[in-house]
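Reproducibility note. Readers wishing to regenerate the assembly model reported in the main text can use the exact inputs given here. Chain order matters: entities are listed in the order in which they were concatenated for prediction.
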Amino acid sequence: MAGLWFDAGFAHPSATQPVAFVPLAGREVGSFDPSRVDPSPGRRLRVFATLVHCVDPATGAVALRESHQAFITPGRPLTYLELYETVANDDAHSAIREALSALPLRLGQPKPLLTELPESPQWSARDPDLPPALQDLGDEINEDIREALDTLDNPESYYPGIDSGIAPVTDEHVKLVIWAMQRELNRELRPQEGHYGGSPPLPAAPLEELQWPVQRALAERRRLRFSQWGIFKEQWEKGAWSLWDVPLDPEYVSRRAQRLYQPVK
Amino acid sequence: MPAPTVTPTITPTTEPATTPWPERYTDPARICPQQRREGASPDVEP
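Running the prediction on these inputs yields the following structure tokens for the assembly.
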């Protein structure tokens, strides 16, 4: 009989019924995908929500994302904020807190870290990427690249760098960062307006054509973005980062979500 | 009976002076989520 297989508490709305937006703080733990446009606030909460998932809606059992073995079975579904506060404060979850304090910074095949421009760079099918829990960090850097490209059309437009709060960025590092960003833009070219099969793909944006102050500002912003997720040179060298170093920043909403989110009417 | 006409093919210009950058180049925001994470280049120091 149709309709009886799911728990009433997790009933799906009909296709014609709009889904009400519930911020993560009040949303029951399920499976949070930060790559979807979701304006839920909370810098650390968004990262935390990506690292866990519900494995039994009836009991509210939750496991770390790479596991199906529940570390908590509260007997009822918890909200993400309730779960976060439990994990952060309850002595019973010290092992989970420790696991969340040493997370891999890079996915993919291990490769040498780059501190200078390679003399003869080799193209590869995939370069290291951030883990999904750091999707917001990747998206913020992406938004910075996007805003920098506006200066191609409007050379006088204001694109400030970072004057304080980050370690100074050398000219050589600016060149390395721009090269690395270009490496990734070149990899995945998309047809115009997402129309496949008809129009030819557009070329990747040429970052080296940006004015030097803009290139420098872009590299400085990238350093700032990493620091906003608690990632500095030390974490980069170790290849590990900690959820607990990510600022709580409860009002934070990603710029991508701010730009693309359209409330259901 | 009117003579059949041929609709001219219009090729979008790529003249920088008249075409905004999102029509000349791929918009970085349109690439996939995994690629946006790759774009952070975590093999390069922050």
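We highlight two features of this model. Helices of chain B lie at 21-24, 33-38. The radius of gyration of chain B is 20 Å.
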